[in-house]
Write a structure and sequence with these properties.
The structure is a homodimer.
Chain A (H helix, E strand, L loop, with lengths): L20 H8 L3 E5 L2 E4 L1 H20 L3 E2 L5 E3 H6 L2 H4 L5 E4 L5 E4 L4 H11 L8 E10 L14 E11 L2 H21 L4 E5 L10 E7 L5 E5 L6 E3 L20 E4 L6 H8 L7 E7 L8 E7 L6 H5 L13 H8 L14 E5 L8 E7 L2 E6 L9 E3 L18 E15 L1 H5 L3 E3 L5 E3 L1 E8 H11 L1 E2 L2 E2 L10 E5 L6 H16 L4 E3 L6 H11 L3 E5 L1 H4 L3 E6 L6 E4 L3 H11 L2
Parallel strand pairs in A: 3-7, 15-16, 16-19, 26-27, 26-28
Antiparallel strand pairs in A: 1-2, 4-6, 5-6, 7-8, 8-23, 9-10, 10-20, 11-12, 11-20, 13-18, 14-15, 17-18, 20-23, 21-22, 24-25, 28-29, 29-30
Chain lengths: ~575, ~575
């Protein structure tokens, strides 16, 4: 590509409403332009990267045996009423009426449309399994679209849906997609993790999220650097320290703690490590009489995990805190000084607490705590459960090391939908015995446009974007210095450009005749991973200059070996 | 591709609501499935053809120097209000509100969005010209969507928009696009015509439509088989016979024509050729006093062309017929017996009438006509104008032969928008003298999904679709007979399939193990242009069978030469 035949539009400053790095850089580098909140035009430079992502996704989906289709953006409400998502889906579902006053949606996802296709097309077990996917424009009416293409309203997704005769076959395809997504994100050149995830609102059981690791990510991920284990922090199982509870070494002592309401205050006031304290949290039970207070005990520096707690039998779900009135009746004290000693109701302690001795806890007397509290000695041995979020240093649930915590940006998600949609929409087939069965379904999404934002969040510096080579708008930029003045530069630049094209390298020749400073700043902002500079100074010694986007220094390369050298760089880089 | 890894779904009968051939065949061949009125899912087989069309369109647009972008489907109403199309566009514009009650549209076209991009990005004549295009999903809320993808509501378009410093440069790009479209439709393998067209509602002046020629087309096109001339029948200039008016040979005679109201009745009753009669049509003038009747004279077998008539100075536009009351006052007679003799008002005759003598015309006396009427002798020489639609046999306006009439399906349209949008939306640049100017704009559309319907309307037979090779879902199908039973068939079919893939041929191996009759019927319906059959019967003599989709008979080909033979067929076919 010649720059003069292309469109390059960089900005010195990002618009003031841009919030995150990727959004600022995409706007500054001219990859996207805003049309309305969360709605963008993909400019030529951005579209090239977008298409490269799409191509990799398609190649790997096809290789995995999925078959491409294209479903409409505008979908009839009837299908959403059948699946009962017309009511269940919130205001993110963009609803509209056509000229005949019929209800439609601009689809945020396509379970209904594809299930309607499947129930009409797939009648026999002989036609199963099938996996249909598409790369398509979706709309989700976010209440607060932000972060550019990271949480836009109109976006491109790859969404695939698989149909199976039985659960074992769904599991096989789920694994196939797990492997396929792993290949896709590897080919995209991204540092990512497959994360065991909650299923969210899309329904069904069994799911993994694929996260691009980036400090600016919205999700906390617990992972084991020594194994494949990764999970949303809220879902990872938290274990105790794996050592037996020490014997009590102190006697129970009631101390006055005037005005102390929080764990931080308490540790501060008593000048003790927060790890020696225990938090008491009172929630409602769901057994007769409903709402009866249940006491949860979590180490002072740990966080209660509501999802884990509400899954415990006898605990009201969603997790609901007991009212101050009920607490006062049950404990004889107010929050801030609560504890198990003297409490007659149900007590559940976290696994970590179960291994503690001589800790500090509320005394059920306002402004008083116990120090030297011990389980079994000072109060009855309570139930034990996993009640908290994991923290860095916790043992990995797979037993292969310790957990670390990082932040991630969700770019892919695979689900076992099971029969949620096939039952709601009567999507049935005849099995080998001639019996009608509901199909088992899986669904598999990749946020194609979001990937670009995530890739930039992961790969940037003060000068701009640093694209992974596979999805850079161009692999290489050729910058001639003094193009307008030097015949030698023009001639050699043109010849090298043509040789690079012939070698199959995705190169852009910057023939805009800009000053070197302007050229270099533009291409560093745009983030093209490889740069070659060709100028009279080097040419007189038969040299050109190569610099990788992450390199600190440029290399002088003989012009005669330029193509081979660059080919080598492109092969080894990622 | 292996058929077992693909998705083939043919139907014996088209759904009862399918109206036209292409729609029926696309549904029967499993290319599309209906989701709602005018809204379809592209099934795997149809999507392959769609992608091939997109690829050819992109390649030629890129080659022509246009730059690809991707604009959003959902567009803010503000832009449409600025261009005043928010009001002007009818109910085909799908309007909607987001969750914050802001107005949006699902875009049927993108002049506003791209003009908004251009006015923000292009500031100087140095940045001009620019041509941006996209291949994108559009929505037009047709009152009566029909004919499958030919007049759907959601569809794919290639729409391009060019921006220029002056009109001469717009004209250059317009010609560039005329040539590019010609290349595109040629590469698609379609019989088409570029047709001078009215600009319709999109605005501006200067436009050509590109029509795929098909008997089932909705538009009548006049074209010259001996030249490039082609125009919408309503726009082609109609000339007289090019010979002088003969001298009168009969005297004027008033004949009784009881109950004769139409030209057909008249010719029938008088036993004369309809070409010797003249129709009198009375329309309203727009001069003072407004609405004054004007008499238009057109040969009996010709059709009045309203667009031409209303362009004549002094004629009310849009063309409005005079009321029966006004006619009775002005002519003393009712429609069916009207004529120029004795009429005191303005009379305009068509060029063909101007060359007639001894014709029959109404006598301005109910149930009476004149025969042997002659211009100049029996009434004053009237004004002459082009008032009618052209008919087959008319001289071509370019003087290169006679016109023929055919029917076409519009699949492309190029417009000179001029400054309609740049003025409405303040899209200006600084010219070489530092003066602000409005950009000249062109716009260029191709109905990508519609092309598939048009291609099928043009190319089909009783057995199904006959794809032009360039856009067939597969170029070649390999049908093994007795795959399940014969090791030789399996072995040779697999080997040939692999050799064909290696040769870069887009082949599908039908490994479904269906009976030959089922296979052949499926692939003839789907319309794959080349077929090879491999079976034990031929293999024992080292032969396979080749048949082109349009061929009457199959050929026996030595297996050893199969790849070369097929490559030859693919190279020469279109």
């Amino acid at each position: 590509m010649l720059a003069s035949r292309f469109f390059i539009s960089t900005l010195k400053e990002a618009p003031s409403d841009a919030e995150v790095t990727s959004q600022k850089l995409m706007l500054r580098a001219g990859l996207i332009r805003k049309v309305a909140a969360g709605i963008y035009t993909w400019m030529p430079m951005g579209l090239r990267s977008l298409r490269k992502v799409e191509t990799i996704v398609r190649e790997e989906m096809n290789r995995a045996g999925a078959i491409e289709v294209l479903m409409p953006a505008v979908q009839p409400a009837e299908l959403w009423q059948e699946s009962q998502r017309w009511e269940a889906y919130g205001p993110e579902l963009l609803r509209l009426k056509d000229r005949h006053d019929r209800d439609f949606v601009v689809g945020p996802t396509h379970e209904e449309v594809i299930t309607d296709v499947a129930r009409r097309e797939l009648k026999s077990y002989r036609q199963l399994p099938r996996h249909f996917y598409q790369v398509q424009t979706k709309f989700r009416d976010e209440i607060r679209p932000r972060f550019g293409v990271m949480r836009g309203r109109e976006f491109t997704m790859k969404d695939g849906y698989s149909f199976h005769a039985d659960y074992a076959d769904l599991e096989r395809e789920y694994r196939n997609m797990y492997d396929t997504y792993t290949r896709i994100f590897t080919r995209l050149g991204l540092d990512f993790r497959a994360v065991a995830a909650d299923t969210g609102s899309i329904g069904g059981t069994g799911s993994h999220e694929f996260h691009v690791i980036a400090e600016t990510g919205e999700d906390d991920i617990a992972y084991c650097p020594d194994s494949d284990f990764a999970a949303n922090v809220e879902l990872a199982e938290a274990f105790g320290p794996g050592v037996a509870r020490p014997s009590p070494s102190r006697s129970l002592e009631k101390v006055h703690t005037p005005g102390v309401k929080t764990i931080a205050d308490l540790a501060d006031y008593l000048k003790i490590p927060v790890e020696t304290t225990v938090k008491a949290i009172v929630v409602k039970g769901d057994e007769t009489p409903a709402g009866e207070p249940v006491l949860l005990m979590v180490r002072g520096d740990h966080e209660l995990n509501a999802i884990k707690a509400q899954k415990i039998e006898g605990i009201l779900s969603p997790l609901t805190f007991a009212s101050p009135e009920d607490i006062l009746v049950a404990f004889g004290a107010n929050p801030g000084s609560l504890g198990p000693i003297g409490f007659k109701g149900r007590v559940i302690m976290d696994r970590t607490v179960a291994a503690m001795a001589d800790f500090v806890i509320g005394a059920n007397d306002d402004d008083w705590h116990y120090v030297g509290a011990n389980i079994g000695r000072d109060f009855e041995e309570p139930e034990v459960a996993d009640l908290r979020n994991v923290v860095a240093g916790d043992p990995s649930p797979d037993g292969k090391g310790s957990l670390e915590i990082c932040r991630g940006i969700e770019v892919g998600h695979i689900f076992q939908l099971r029969t949620k949609y096939s039952e709601a929409m009567c999507c049935r087939f005849l099995d080998e015995n001639g019996r009608e069965q509901h199909m088992e379904m899986g669904c598999y999404g990749i946020g194609v446009t979001r990937i670009l934002g995530a890739a930039i969040e992961q790969n940037n510096d003060a000068r701009g974007i640093i694209w992974p080579q596979a999805i850079a708008p161009f692999e290489l930029v050729l910058c001639p210095v003094g193009l307008g003045k030097s015949d030698a530069v023009r001639e050699h630049a043109t010849r090298l450009y043509e040789s690079l094209l012939e070698a199959g390298i995705d190169v852009i020749l910057d023939d805009r005749n800009e000053r070197p400073g302007v050229m270099f700043a533009d291409w560093e902002l745009i983030g093209v991973p490889h740069r070659v500079v060709i100028g009279d100074r080097g040419l007189k010694d038969g040299l050109i200059e190569y610099q990788g986007r992450r390199d600190v220094e440029a290399l002088q390369i003989p012009l005669a070996q330029a193509v081979d050298f660059i080919r080598g760089k492109l092969t080894t880089a990622s």
